[in-house]
Amino acid sequence: MNVTLRVWRQPGPSAAGKFVEYQARDISAEMSFLEMLDVVNEELTAKGEQPIAFDHDCREGICGMCGLMISGVAHGPMKATTTCQLHMRSFTDGDTITVEPWRASAFPVLRDLCVDRSSLDRIVQAGGYVSVSTGNAPDGNAIPIAKPDADAAMDAAACIGCGACVAACPNGSASLFTAAKISHLGYLPQGQPERYRRALKMVAQMDLEHFGGCTLFGECQAACPKEISIDTIARMNRDYLYGSVFEREESRSAGGAG
Amino acid sequence: MELKSNIPGGPIAEKWDKHKFEMKLVNPANKRKYHVLVVGSGLAGASAAATMSELGYNVSCYCFQDSPRRAHSIAAQGGINAAKNYQNDGDSIQRLFYDTVKGGDFRAREANVYRLAQISVNIIDQCVAQGVPFAREYGGLLANRSFGGAQVSRTFYARGQTGQQLLLGAYQALEKEIAKGGVTMYPRTEMLDLIVVDGRARGIVTRNLVTGKIETHLGDAVVLATGGYGNVFYLSTNAKGSNTTAIWRAYKRGAAFGNPCYTQIHPTCIPQSGDYQSKLTLMSESLRNDGRVWVPKQAGDTRAPHEIPEAERDYYLERKYPSYGNLSPRDIASRAAKEACDSGRGVGPGGLGVYLDFRDAINRLGRDKIEERYGNLFQMYERITDEDPYKVPMRIYPAVHYTMGGLWVDYNLMSTIPGLHVLGEANFSDHGANRLGASALMQGLADGYFVIPYTIGNYLAGQKLEPVSKDHPEVRAVEREVEERTRRLLGIKGKRSVQSFHRELGKVMWEYCGMARNAQGLQEALARIPALREEFWENLNVPGSGEELNQSLEQAGRVADFLELGELMCRDALHREESCGGHFRTEHQTEDGEAKRDDEHFTYVAAWEYAGEGKTPILNKESLEFENVHLATRSYK
Predict the structure, then answer these.
(1) Helical ranges in A16-174 per DSSP H
(2) Which of A18, A38, B405, B459 has the fewest other C-beta atoms within 10 Å?
(3) Where does residue B16 fall: left (phi above 0), alpha (psi -120 to 50 degrees), or beta otherwise?
(4) H-run or E-run covering B94
């Protein structure tokens, strides 16, 4: 099959970008979308042109490194599928496909289709963990966890941090990403001691990073390759609200001398 | 070169405890004065960086991806072993130790493996405490499944995403330490060389992959946790970015390379579908808990699988290895698949595939149960092949997956360069000639959470390390070499792309140094690889410049190193005149086609020492003593 690509090319973070048209010829339907881009890049290289820069790594849908807006849809037309797992059989001969990087003010473009998503790491730094140091853990079976809770935690923990939720959201909100982590840890007994503090801090960091607010469009849920439910956002809001009312200020007292 | 394994004395069960007591400690207030550089942020790197920071060390951590959470550990599917014996099925530290030594075909160091088995139980506890959502039974306790090479259920799992969940646990611990200021993280940063001053590892030279800036980072010790080198084969289950550069540069600075030829070919991967293929995708070994592997009995049988009656199917693993059946270890299952395909009974395009069939399990347990256990794997299979594995059996074929070889390390995980420590898949230590399923995650986390935090203190407390400045002649020299090499790669301006060289190297490696090897083929490869390398340096085309995000340049540096490593792998494979684990020399097999070891001549680790450009590397040997597990022919029949 043959397809026409309109690809966003931008030489650097502060350079101006534009769409450039390329022809991808004799593409096999069995190719993944990224393999199709590989073929285009090989041709560009042979012509002495700069290949299209795009992020990718595992190419099996789990590392979260790849992510493209494909004709306006985050990760392309196939439901619950990352860009690397999208295959050309999802397109038809003669299609024109527009390829853009994630569009969000919190994800500045580095080059072509690569963006800087370090803002997501900083949201995790704000509290997306259980504060337990290595070596002081009780036996793994000491605290039984009801299977439905463990399963719900796993559903939320499946987030791969690709940023599709942000790119799909008209507000550029990272609510689904943040809520997934808050829910994963919030479902588990290990996450309880820091539950409300975590919600307050992570949400505050999300705002600092210039992600937009959530107005429940639901685009994030539709774009999520791991089908994380928007219900997690309700949990996040509940934990945030509870924390805003009941979370105690951190004690400033250093205690008495021993 | 002297290989001092530094294995503590005493009975094997007491070695680690004794060693922990005997090792020197660094006073808590002094730890922050030490700066440790950790390269890699996968299970081993992230857990090491986080734990050392918790102890008070000043840590810098580097990864080439845009976030430490993307390291390739994330793709591990099936599970992690631990000798918890929660199932009351006879597991113990001793049994995990025994299974691992036997699974590795008696080519691993006993003391390291025993320690690994001991630590395995702590790993599960640690991960549970971090909030890793392991699978649970209805009673709320942890669930287990079985993996190849074991007759007990000791594998803990989080659906088919165990690696992801364990890595996120380690990543979150790392982010916690970054927030605290104990770790400085350098994402999109690739290590391009190692700095050795006065015989000790003191720093690294990196390239900032966004700006192209070459930078020097100095410290008191360097920890490499940079994963395996399976991508030397071009097509493998590794992530596209996985590479050998960090360990290869260290090798060229004096770290011995242990058993480079030990490669694991995983039996259950999705077969290649065309020449444009960029990688191969694994289907977890855990699928063999419920899936049955078969091919038609008749060569050239082209009927659809459901039209082939039971009597005309050959469930060859169950037939050849009745006691382990479909859960035979990976090397054995891979060779059996190759044998079936070589005899003309392979299925699918080109006859390079065998069936992994869930029909019986679905009939027995119901579709829901199978979906619960393997849902995401079935979905992944369908995405790639456009076939529904609930209805049609999966087609699978072996693919390069893991490298047991790596930099040689002593019991303290230190290489032959003092101060350079190597963790996880990047070292050679625990799996011998074949790794058992669900043991890579165990080793990565054991090294990072529970071994290096102790042994790094022992190293640092035993040294007088003078401060090194960025103007030190050694430092400047390495920096200049890196800049010069980058310029050279960009300056060739030939005709061929990096990818085309990488593909060609991969084909040579797969053909001559893959699942079956022989002297003639290896010699052929040893002639072809240097020729290809020569062409690479004359006819490579890397567009763009060094002062920008340039993915072709990144790839070129990695492939240049693969072109050197491939030769060493073939050399090692040629010298090892025996078959063991993943290393199968066709000249050395039993009458029924099983691997034939030569314990008299080859019970040693081959540690190769770099001898200089164009010179033949020097072979050093660490002989392996088996005092606790009796050397025996491995049998899974």
Answers:
(1) 33-46, 118-125, 147-157, 164-168
(2) A18
(3) alpha
(4) helix B93-103
Bridge-based pairing of strands B58-62 and B183-186 is: parallel
* Residue B163: Cβ-neighbour burial (10 angstroms; 0-12, 13-18, 19+): buried
Shortest distance, CA B629 to any CA of chain A (angstroms): 29
* Strands, E assignment, B301-408: 313-314, 354-357, 394-403, 406-407
Listed residue (B528, B40, B522) closest to B261, CA to CA: B522
Search chain A and give the residue with CA nearest B125.
Answer: A140
Mean pLDDT by runs of 10 across the 637 residues of chain B is 96 98 96 98 98 98 98 94 97 97 96 98 98 96 91 93 97 98 98 98 98 98 98 98 98 98 96 91 90 96 95 96 92 93 94 96 95 87 94 96 98 98 97 96 98 98 96 98 98 97 98 96 98 98 96 98 98 98 96 93 98 97 96 87
Q: Is the pLDDT of residue A256 over 90?
A: no
Distance (Å, whole) CA A175 – CA A19: 30
Minimum distance, in Å, between the CA of residue A211 and any CA atom of chain B: 18
Rg of chain B over all Cα atoms, to the nearest angstrom: 24
| Interface test with chain B among A28, A52, A60, A202, by most B beta carbons within 10 Å | A60
Residue in the structure block whose two tokens are 């690479």: B536
Q: For the domain A3-111, what is the CATH superfamily, name and number?
A: Beta-grasp domain (3.10.20.30)
CA B286, CA B304: separation in Å to the nearest integer?
25
Cβ atoms of residues B143 and B136 within 8 Å: yes
Please identify among residues 376-405 of chain B the ones whose CB lies closer than 8 Å to any CB of chain A: 379-380, 383-384, 386
> Do B220 and B34 contact (CB within 8 A), yes or no?
yes
Give the CATH number of domain A117-246: 1.10.1060.10
Q: Is the pLDDT of residue A250 over 80?
A: no
Cα B631 to chain center, whole Å?
25
Residue B294, phi then psi, degrees to nearest 5: -155, 165
Domain chopping of chain A, boundaries: 3-111, 117-246
Instruction: Kindly report the CATH number that applies to the domain delimited by B266-401.
Output: 3.90.700.10
What stretches of chain A show up as alpha helix (H) in DSSP?
Answer: 33-46, 118-125, 147-157, 164-168, 175-186, 195-208, 219-223, 231-246
DSSP three-state, residue A9? strand
B 149-188 → A contacts, CB under 8 A: 158-159, 161, 163-165, 168, 171-173, 175-176, 178-179, 185, 187
Distance, CA of A144 to CA of B233 (rounded, Å):
44
CB atoms within 10 A of CB B614: 6
In angstroms, rounded to a whole number, what is the distance separating the alpha carbons of residues B504 and B497?
A: 11
pLDDT at A257: 65
Phi, psi of A198 (to 5 degrees): -60, -45
Residue of A nearest to B119 (CA): A135
